[in-house]
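User: I've been trying to design a sequence by hand for this structure and keep getting stuck. Would you show me what you'd pick, starting by listing the structure so we're on the same page?

Assistant: Good idea, let's start from the same input. This is the structure you sent:
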């Protein structure tokens, strides 16, 4: 469930507007890995036998 940031009403998942006050409801971002730091992996061993 999502809650309206304006009036606090509980709305159904996927709702674009609050059913009570009509305020647009923010949808969760789909960029899950946008905050993952990028590093230098050139020193990480690749392949090989175990």
């Amino acid at each position: 469930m999502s809650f309206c940031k304006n009036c606090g009403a509980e709305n159904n998942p996927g709702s674009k507007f609050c059913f009570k006050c009509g305020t647009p409801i923010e949808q969760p971002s789909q960029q899950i890995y946008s905050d993952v730091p990028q590093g230098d992996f050139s020193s990480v061993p690749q392949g090989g036998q175990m």
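That's my pick for every position. To get oriented when you compare it with your attempt: The two ends are 47 Å apart (CA to CA). The chain has a mean pLDDT of 80.
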